[in-house]
Amino acid sequence: MATYIALIHKDADSDFGVSFPDFPGCVTAGRTLDEARAHAVEALALHIEGMLEDAVEIPAPSDLDAIIANRKNKNAVAVLVDGPVRTPKTVRVNITLPEDTLAEIDAYAETAGTTRSGLIATATRKFIRAA
């Protein structure tokens, strides 16, 4: 997952507030800067999780220079927050291959220190990228 910009700001009589320019509505707060940053990590993860559940596209991170150049952000402190790491769901599939091809796959996978599934997945990704 990508790294996103969080803006930490503080008004005179309030806690530190955190907002994300790339995720309108994703906000949190903390009594200290460290607490605000910790809450930012959690808020971003929950916000992105909700977007994924709703099949909403996750935006690419904005340019830090562009965010800081915006006059409304002049009193904010920008920190970078890593988005959550998504572990893809593993799905079991049934494929049919000639016996000799399967033997070649297994032999190569063993010498490469991987599994049959790992080799097939890697080879498939390389094939698709090359297309």
Can you tell me about this structure?
The protein contains four helices and four strands. The model has no long low-confidence stretch (mean pLDDT 92). The radius of gyration is 22 Å and the shape is elongated. Helix 3 crosses helix 4. It starts with a strand and ends with a helix. The protein is α+β, with helices and mostly antiparallel strands and 131 residues long. It has a four-stranded antiparallel beta sheet with strand order 3-2-1-4. Helices cover 43% and strands 17% of the residues.
**Rg, please?**
22 Å
Helix content: 40-55%
Beta-strand share of residues: 15-25%
Number of helices: 4
Average pLDDT figure: 92
Counting DSSP E segments of at least 2 residues, the number of strands comes to 4
Give the class from helix and strand content and strand pairing: alpha+beta
Ends distance? 25 Å
Main beta-sheet annotation: 4 strands, antiparallel
Low-confidence segments: none
Order of helices and strands: EEEHHEHH
**Spatial order of strands in the largest sheet:** 3-2-1-4
What does the overall shape look like? Answer: elongated
